[in-house]
Amino acid sequence: MRSGWDERCSAMEKLLVLKEVFKGYGRPGSHSFRPVLAGLNWELEAGTRTAIVGPSGSGKTTLLNLIGALDRPDRGEICFNGRDISGYSEPELALFRNSVLGFVFQQHHLLPQLTLLENVLLPLLATKKAASAVERQWAESLLHQTGLWEQRHQKPGELSGGECQRTAVVRALINKPQLLLADEPTGALDEKNASLLADLLLSISREQGLTLVTVTHSPDVASRMDQRFHLRDGQLLL
Amino acid sequence: MNRTRMILRSLIHYLPRHLLVALGVALSTAILTGALFIGDSMRYSLEQITLSRLGNTTHLLSVTDRYFRADLATEMNRGTGITAVPLLLLDGMAVADGGENRVNHLMVNGIDDRFREIYPGIPLPEGDQVVISANVALQLGVSTGDPLLVRITKATLMPRNTPFVSENDQTVTLRATVAAILPPEGAGLFNLRNAQTTPRNLFLSLHRLNTLMDLNGRANRILFTSQNSSLLSSGGSMTTSQLDSLLRLYLTPADAGLQIREIAAAGEWDITSERIFLEPEISTAFSALPGSRPILTYFVNTIATTRKEVPYSFAASLPGTQLAKGDLIVNEWVAADLEGAVGDSVTLTWFEIGPLRQLEEKSRRFRMAAVVPLSGSWADSTLMPAIPGMANAGHCREWEAGVPIDLDKIRPRDEAYWNRYRGTPKIFVAPELAHEIWANRFGSTTAIRLPRDRFSPTAFMTTFREKISPAALGFSLSEVRASGLASARGGVDFGQLFLGLSFFLLLAALLLTALLFRFNLENRTSQVGTLLQLGFTPRRVTSLLLSETALVALAGVAAGLLLAVGYVQIIFSFLNTLWWDIVRTPVIFLNIKSTTLITGALVSFAVALLSMAIPLRKTLRQSVADLHHQREISSAFGRSPLKRWIPWLLSLPALGLVALQLSGLIPADPLLFFLAGGALLAGLVATFSQLLAIPAPEETIPQRDTSQMNPLQVESQQMESPRMEFPQMESALGELPQGASPGMTLPKMLLRQAARNRRRSISVFLLFALGTFIVVATGANRRNLYSRAADLSSGTGGFTAWTELAVPLLYDLNDSARRAKEGITTSFRVVPFARVEGDDASCLNLHKVENPSILGVDPSLLEGRFSFVSHTDGLDPRNPWSSLRDTLPGDVVPGIADQTVIQWGLMMKIGDTLFYQGERGDTLRIKLVGGLAPSLFQGSVLIADTHLYRYFPTHSGSHVLLTQCTPGEEETAGDEIRDLLRDHGIEMTPAARRLAEFNSVTNTYLAIFLALGLLGLLLGTLGLALVLARSVLERRSELATLLALGFRRNRVVALLMGEYLFLLTTGTLSGFLAATLAVIPSLTGSHNPVSAGNVALLILLILVNGAAWIFLLARLLVTPSRLLPALRDL
Prior knowledge:
The structure holds two protein chains of two kinds.
Chain A lengths: L1 H10 L4 E10 L8 E11 L4 E5 L6 H8 L7 E6 L2 E2 L5 H10 L1 E4 L11 H6 L11 H13 L15 H13 L5 E5 L7 H18 L2 E5 L3 H5 L3 E6 L2 E3 L1
Helix pairs in contact in A: 6-7
Chain B lengths: L2 H11 L1 H40 L4 E5 L4 E2 L1 H7 L4 E15 L4 E11 L17 E5 H7 L6 E7 L17 E12 L18 E5 H7 L5 E2 L1 E6 L2 H6 L5 H11 L7 E6 L4 E6 L6 H8 L5 E3 L1 E8 L4 E9 L9 E5 H7 L6 E9 L5 E14 L39 H10 L5 E3 L1 H8 L8 E5 L5 H11 L7 E4 L1 H10 L4 H8 L1 H21 L1 H9 L4 H38 L18 H27 L3 H5 L12 H4 L1 H18 L6 H23 L18 H7 L9 H7 L12 H10 L2 H23 L20 E9 L6 H7 L5 E9 L16 E5 L10 E4 L21 E6 H7 L7 E5 L5 E10 L7 E5 H7 L6 E8 L4 H11 L6 E4 H44 L1 H9 L4 H30 L1 H5 L7 H26 L2 H4 L7
Parallel strand pairs in B: 4-8, 5-7, 15-19, 16-18, 24-29, 26-28
Antiparallel strand pairs in B: 1-10, 1-21, 2-9, 3-4, 3-6, 3-10, 5-8, 6-7, 11-12, 12-20, 13-20, 14-15, 14-17, 16-19, 17-18, 22-30, 22-31, 23-24, 23-30, 25-28, 27-28
């Protein structure tokens, strides 16, 4: 089954393809079961900037978790760059998340015990013991670009919300991912910082040819993306 | 930036929380390693006590009821490099202050300057000076220079109850002066028995002691040590077989009490014994020589015809003749006295003497076969044995023959015979007949005659050394140092004991550690999710977190090792005070072995790490998304059909097992009841866990209708926050919200609340259930026998008192004639016991015992008394004691002992066999056929008196008495017995008190278990407090909402208290239920009544303590000022 789907995946030119994806919560068949995604089909081109909007509880975060390999669908297939990831083992998914994806959440989720620079370099330790000089240079470059270089030795508790969220973005880019997923990245920021962060995401996406998918409640952020999809009744609608 | 840096950063950042976890680890390390340290220390202490009590002694030569030449030690020392130190060891008692202060069981040691090879520097007493140990001085209230009266058991060259040996003068008195007092170390602890209790020692000059005993240079022990110190420290190349060879080389007939003299008139050598009767092996060896004539001479009461009688004469066997068994030969003096002639019928009467000098007069009729002249070989006065009390008597009326002599019967004629012919035998009988009627347990020969021309003193020595083994004479060589150390090392393992006793405390500490770690982990769940999301594999995350945790555990273990030393010191202080009963020695050294330190550290580290790895592993099983968003999803535990059956699989067999035992279908066994209780406890815990796994109904929270809103309104107005549950609201409002599930009751609500964090709730439930189970089971087993002391089936056997004598009682105190003679007026019955000394196998001795003391008794005197808890198939349950008379296949003797002694003192089981060396080198095999419920006999093994005398034939008198008094006469009878036996060093203990003393050991163990268990419950209460505090912290918003909505603070506090009281009460009651099942034998048994008051008090304490903490914390934490700010964070 998997090898057949791999063949189909490899024939597709899209960066990301979701086919007949189902996902629900609770015990299937019981009163408590709640379906969230019901046979969702979706294709994403590389290099695009996409916003996903929808009412509360529609499954936006669920969808992002599936794409981001943080969760597995109940049924259906997810194909990334010609490879089926829905059947990956845990170590394979971990490597996938580390090398292919970048993730930015509403909460920055920086480790409070590490400095800004250490937080940025953290993803590198998933596969190696220490950052190389090249990687450190890349991190330095990103921090300069985002205006965080001076604060590199400070800890998250000493930074503002906006600075923390920008750091989270830099962390998501450290491994030069192909796809950047952002779940309500501006949700915890004020209007000014939200706008700055949105600008940052878009500029990085354009400069590095990075595909960007963002879940947002902000009409301003949504309007600045190339395309917008509504998630309703378990389906993505343009 | 590298992983090590990351780990260290996390460690420092979360240091305060880690310190709490480290504290938990330190506690568990202290408990676990502390227990091991206690084991090492006690073992070391017992070893040190062994080394102290033996000094430089490595081997020991001992002998039973015999006194050899002290010069034997000198001869064995000659040129061998082995130092042999003679010792004369006797029992005694001491009195001071005009009799006000007494010490009844004193070890009187006669020593000379060679004893300094054993204890360098020991003060040597001279003349009437004595050196005593500190405990003796304390008990007597004497100091250096003070006088005291010492009464010492008289050392006699013949066994005390040898026929015709007087029982008078059993003790010798010495008015002594205290020359020095020995501290409780070194020689002050001198003891050749394996025991940790401090002995009561008195030392005096060997020469003086010999003089007192009318002996000349005698000893009954030789202590061996080596002048070569390397041999001493390594255990040396000196072995018992080497010593045995040396002993055979130097042992002489004189050491065996044998003597040879020439009887010129008869042209014979005469071999006799100081012991009156020659031991069978000696008799056999010399009787086999060519020309030997074994002779048995006996004291007869009368020689009579129908007309006349001759009183009190000696009769001898006549070897080498063809005399028929029914014939006898009289000398002319008798013939004239009886006016008899050949062919006349003559009746002999004599006393047959029992073990306790019971006299049974026997008689037999003979035919006068011949009359011989009173001259030549027929007038041989040397045929009379050298019976003290008779041999040197000037007149017949001075005889002290150990049997009643009617002086009125002695005529001047008899006195004239005595004056001229002394004990010359008046009659002669066939050897076979003499053997048949006069042979006794002491021997069947009083002399052996050998032709002068075919024997010599040299041949005497040669025959003795070649034919007679030292073991046959009761000489025994032992590696006393090696066996003593082995006994010390093999005894009660205090390490395992304290591990067991503190198992619940350890469990509580580990659960607390796991709980604290889990709290930390919960705070970092999103971090774990972040790391996984960033591409760290679960294994990598585990490695990072466990590395951090390992450093915490390491710190905790290091602190715990230090704490362990303090813990051990605290335990030792209790062992020296409150818990004295289980050690009974002040000599306890702290000894920490490096191997134990490392083992304890490693095990503690591993256990701590495991207690933290398990929650971590469970956390990592959740999906990355759930972790990242800090959602805890309850596991599917309890929902699988198989797991639903677990409570039934545990509880039903437990109840079934109990029912089967109560109905008698299977034999009742306390262990099975305990297991059943444990299984029920596990079943109740599983039931509680199952109840918490029942999923909550979905429809209790109403859904908002958003169908009429535009998407942006929906998006902007709805928050994606975790749904909050307010079961308290439902109860507080008194009605359910619209659409809520009907049937919400208080128990359901409490269960749902507990189910919010199943693991925490189960931890708290388990802590209290297990703690209560242990505490109640322990409390119920505390023994209190005073109320049933009079029962025949109880451990006292219905007897009033247990009496021990330093000087044995040679006669039967039940004998009415004897009582009348002693002026006894009260009516009491006595059961006498002969005792062969051995190691104390009771719970009072911490050493491993291989040869406990043996008590020999007439089994019929114990029938219907005491209770058996186990027995072999061969034991008749209707008359169990009578089985002691049997001889089992293989010449094995049945024995009975306390079951606890069999199991824990001897580390054996019913059906096993004990081996002893008999007095004559033969092997006594005692098969344990019956195990008693805890009784007065703890420490000894019981066999029939007949069997005891068979293997220890020269054993004389009773050292132990059980008395039963008429109700109301106990005090009077006790006084009479004490007065009568004062000079025997009597120690009389009420039977119930003696039993209580043994039970004090068990009760002390239980008290320790209880104390540590209660400490564990205290830790459990701390865990409960932490869980409550944590819960309030996590539910701040929820509780704040209630306050904001107008609920009174007391109402909210009451709701919170209700949740935790629910856990406390259900846990405690579950533990109590299970414990009740476990202790049914104590509830229903006659010999172990349960202390219901103690149990109720314990339950109350647990509940009140827990409730108090819940109340205090709830009131402290649920305040508007603490909670309302949480509403801003919503």
